[in-house]
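Troubleshooting: if your tokenizer reports a length mismatch, compare your output against this known-good record of 285 residues.
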Amino acid sequence: MTIDLGGRLEGIRYEKSDGVARITIDRADRGNSLTKEMEQIFRAIWIDVRDDPEVRVAIVCASGERHFSTGFDVSSIGEDGAVAHNRPLEQDVFWGPHRAGVWKPVLCCVNGLVTGAGLHFVVDADIVLASENAAFMDSHVNVGMVGAIENVGLAKRLPLGSALRMTLMGRHYRMPASRAHQLGLVDELVPTPADLLPAALEMAEQLKQNSPQAMALSKQAVWGSLERGYRDALEHAWALLRLHWGHPDFEEGPRAFKEKRDPEWNPDPDARSSTGQARSDGEDA
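Known-good structure output:
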């Protein structure tokens, strides 16, 4: 199944099958570079991933083997030279899943070089896979731009010095996949680009076996901890944990384990079990 974006899917392939959404940057002849028009397409795709109850996992990948994305295509910049709209953050920058409130698992498959704006997809992913020919680079400062949004994400996933080395040295430094794997920017390293999608699909099948709501709240707890001090992060996580006590999956998981069968998860995040509703009513009282 493919969503209808009014014919605006140029440069991107979006496919959904068996609970997995596959988003492919498809401009191999242009280094899988990104244009201003593609940002709104990504925004619509992420909203669809978020709102489609059939989608359980999303995978971001790119065509070809040499480049995941060479960043923003400067030839697509208008006469004003702007690559953004000079608005507050909440009204701009819609490349990644976080800006659309996607709490489903997102995997990113990096084949070849990724630089600049292409790093949005890496730093916003939950699990990053890369082939051994992958490399990571940021070239904002080389073209007189500030390395900021993607680079803050790098600093959350890398040691500070490594994030700053990539940010400040620009084209003079490419972090190889092996080093990125050692430092934690890459979570799974595979031999070739051809190995990426099979590895990601295998992960997706394993993720689909888990409670969708439990994963969504777990993801919120972990990502939310990056925005809080330790005590506040624990309080936030505890609130999310308690919220899940009222969901049917909280009872279905142990019941299925006891009965030695596969669980039947409820995909509705607002669903409430009878005991969970009673517990909530008791707290309200």
